[in-house]
UniProtKB/TrEMBL annotation:
It comes from the Eukaryota. PANTHER family: FAMILY OXIDOREDUCTASE, PUTATIVE (AFU_ORTHOLOGUE AFUA_4G13850)-RELATED, GAMMA-BUTYROBETAINE HYDROXYLASE-RELATED. GO terms for molecular function: oxidoreductase activity. Residues 100-271, 343-403 form the TauD/TfdA-like domain. InterPro entries: AlphaKG_dependent_hydroxylases, TauD-like_sf, TauD/TfdA-like. Residues 303-322 have a biased composition (Low complexity). Residues 269-289 have a biased composition (Acidic residues). This is TauD/TfdA-like domain-containing protein. Residues 259-355 are annotated as: Disordered.
Length: 478
């Protein structure tokens, strides 16, 4: 655990780990190989993509989303005692933050329920809420330890969200805490459009306090539901979203942008095709010097064990076994409109290609469909949300904190990026650059666990930290 406040200066000054330099070069060749970005007038989905995803729990809308509590865990009194006992072990043995995991934070009764919920997040609804932590009874340090302990049941690999190695990000309205107004979505109370947090498999949020006055709700939309709609009504938009020519800003780093698709399809296991297998065997532009396909391959496993299980929708029993479901392909999304079009915090540099009218129209339609098919939820004090960040898009409504109410009751969330190496979906090759930047290794970068959010914020404003690791400068907010 690092306690240094010194600014981080990367040994490799570019935006990505050195071993992915070949992929980056290949990405930038898109604009040399395609003189004019293609139009997509097709009336069918791309070759090899499904004309419709078969029914599954991943496909839902407001009418079909479960009305029961199968996606919610309410922590019971005995389970809270388990959490307190695990917390005491962490404190008594001085276990560092980086070593808090399922083994060191043992939850004999609650743990199996969290394991089942983790299965559902990966292969079911894609979303789970855990409620009932009395945050006011714990110190800031204890709340961080509880978050690390509970979240480890969903993923023990934690992504860095800043160049200085920070694994935790606090989200709050800077202005109501006595700081100058801040345009970053992390530190203001503005509404946010639908997006994925750019670089994580599982998004974890822990609510220390909801907004003191109103607002701050989040809406969630199933990407699989949206895909089926597009496949039936607007297949040309799928071509646009799946094209490799979307220019992503790297915010002042070298290179200034890279290109990749927004939408991906991974076929069922065993149906990837010989052409893709041959390409992977060649390892062209994709390996480190030791022959691994990705940085820190033991951590970033691109092809984890494929599970075909789903969490029974009507069962809340900790002893229930997941039911098998047919093998199906998966649609994955990874997009942040601000990283593609610019924002007040990060205006779009003139040297980065602008979005085409077709790309702009695709984003507009995607936002509209997210609004149409989404469900809305507001986190309460002491609640978690665990979100499949590849299959569910989310937004944030504006929120308001009364300046007359103590800041301890203002909106305050902690964010983590998680990856479960046993259950994680296969990472598309086009995302290796981004995933390597968050889940890979950077020499000389220690893990940082931010507990004092206001001190950390002041350090940021003095230029001692930099939001770049997590996509859009880590600027996506919840």
């Amino acid at each position: 655990m690092s306690t240094t406040a010194a600014p981080y200066v990367p040994l490799y000054g570019d935006y990505y780990p050195r071993e992915l330099e070949g992929l980056l070069k290949k990405s930038r060749e898109v604009y040399k190989n395609i003189p004019e970005r293609l139009d997509y007038p097709e009336k069918t989905v791309p070759k090899g993509w499904p004309s419709s995803l078969p029914p599954s729990r991943m496909i839902w809308d407001p009418e079909t989303f479960p009305t029961d509590s199968s996606h919610i865990i309410e922590i019971t009194g005995p389970e809270l005692l388990e959490i307190n006992s695990a917390l005491s072990v962490i404190k008594d043995l001085s276990i560092p933050h980086s070593e808090i995991n399922k083994s060191t934070f043992s939850l004999p009764t609650l743990g199996p329920r969290l394991d089942a919920a983790c299965q559902s997040v990966h292969f079911g609804l894609g979303i789970c809420f855990v409620n009932g932590i009395p945050v006011e009874k714990y110190t800031a340090e204890e709340n961080v330890c509880i978050m690390l302990g509970i979240s480890s049941y969903f993923g023990e690999t934690r992504g860095r969200q800043r160049d200085d190695g920070a694994r935790l990000i606090h989200i709050f309205h800077a202005l109501t805490r006595g700081f100058p107004a801040n345009l970053s979505p992390i530190f203001n109370n503005h509404a946010q459009v639908f997006h994925n947090d750019m670089t994580t498999d599982i998004l974890c949020m822990y609510c220390l306090s909801p907004a003191s006055t109103s607002g701050g709700s989040n809406s969630y939309a199933s990407l699989h539901k949206i895909y089926n709609y597009l496949a039936e009504h607007n297949p040309d938009v799928i071509h646009t979203l799946a094209a490799p020519d979307w220019p992503f800003d790297t915010y002042g780093y070298n290179p200034p942008f890279h290109t990749r698709p927004l939408l991906f399809y991974t076929p069922p296991e065993g149906e990837e095709g010989e052409e893709q297998e041959d390409e992977d065997e060649k390892g062209e532009d994709s390996g480190s010097e030791d022959g691994e396909r990705t940085p820190r391959a033991s951590i970033l496993n691109l092809s984890p064990s494929s599970s075909t299980t789903d969490l029974p929708s009507s069962s809340s029993s900790s002893s229930s076994s997941p039911e098998p479901t047919p093998k199906i392909g998966r649609i994955l999304g990874s997009l942040s409109p601000r990283q593609l079009s610019g924002s007040k915090v990060h205006p779009r540099p003139s040297g980065i290609p602008a979005l085409t009218p077709r790309q702009q129209s695709a984003l507009t339609l995607l936002e509209s469909l997210c609004q149409k098919f989404s469900i809305t939820h507001t986190l309460s004090r002491g609640s978690f949300v665990f979100l499949n960040n590849l299959s569910v898009l989310h937004n944030r409504g504006p929120y308001f904190d009364d300046p007359e109410i103590p800041v301890e009751k203002h909106r305050d969330l902690i964010r983590m990026f998680l990856r479960n190496e046993e259950l994680a979906w296969t990472t598309p090759k086009e995302l290796w650059l981004d995933w390597g930047r968050v889940f890979g290794e950077f020499d000389g970068v220690e893990e940082r666990w931010v507990v004092d959010k206001e001190k950390d914020y002041r350090d940021q404003q003095r230029g001692m930290t930099n939001y770049t690791a997590g996509g859009e400068g880590g600027d996506d907010a919840y």
